[in-house]
Design a protein that fits this description.
about 375 residues; mainly alpha; Hypothetical protein af1432; Four Helix Bundle (Hemerythrin (Met), subunit A); 3 domains; 23 helices; globular
Length: about 375
Amino acid sequence: MSEELTSEQIQLALQGISVPPQPQIMVDLQMEQYMPDPDLGAIARLIAQDPGLSGALLKIVNSAHYGLSSKIASIDKAVNLLGSRTVINLINAQSIRGEMTDEAIVTLNRFWDTAQDVAMTSLTLAKRIGSQTVDESYALGLFHDCGIPLMLKRFPDYMTVLEEAYANAGPDCRVVDTENHAFDTNHSVVGYYTAKSWRLPEHVTNAIANHHNALAIFQDDSSRDPTLKNLLAPLKMAEHICQSYRVLGSQDVDHEWESVGPLVLDHEEGLRLAAGKADLAADMLAMLLASLDADREAIRAARASQDVHALIERIHRLHGATRYCGVPQLRSACQRAETLLKQGAPHTEEALNDLDKAIIRLEAEARVMA
């Protein structure tokens, strides 16, 4: 198994792949951030010039993670609450999407959803264990797979190969090994180079490069940079919780986690303990409830348009979000509906109706408990 990537390997692997330049707004924001006394008002004014970035920022600040009693509609207030570092991470992520064609964006709907889910879950876990790298954990969750849309832009059959990569993952075959065999490069390499060129923190770029090399890293008891392990531990658990193996890899089993999971939990005792704690379940449930109404509407829209592929993807995502939330009825309804959809079984409509009822029931229970 390979160690951290060298500059020569990166340059070779990037031949033929277009890495997007850092947007001018990012250059302006970083110049402001590096000032001795950053002006948050100036940062807010820069963001307000771009409706897409403004909308993305307000969506995050009004998410369940921040637990605000009322919604924020002001960019100034959002920037002051989030801080310049988190704001810059969000804008970088939005800029990756801006590089894609409309067709690629539709193909990668599952990618955009899971990137934010993994980022928020990584942040929640990092806070839960008292990590000193909470902001970097969020950035890593957001950017660890940023090479995927760029790979798809270069290789039209990339998603098929990625699904094969997740299917083959195990102790003797990393996800990126299958990609390397097909393309002589992989999304970790491309993501590393993009993150590095966009001046993300070095610890984050190194973790992006190695996030599918986690087994070798956690097996190594030498003096390897402990920050790398401390960043990768919540990331790998967040990927498992958010079911990246299902959403991106279309697999029913997380083969990668089966190999690396025990080592991750042994390394970070706090994660092992947090996985069984009620307060973590409460955090995860709050995240689920924040998007539940939108999930229900998306599922209904996919049913109405008879878009089976979109329907499976939305239920995939919802099923992943129920992990560790303590909502067995909704989780079971998701699993049954998804299974029957894939089989084209005669009772599919009944299962979808049951899923809709389970969502409505959970929302009603949440209102009573509020």
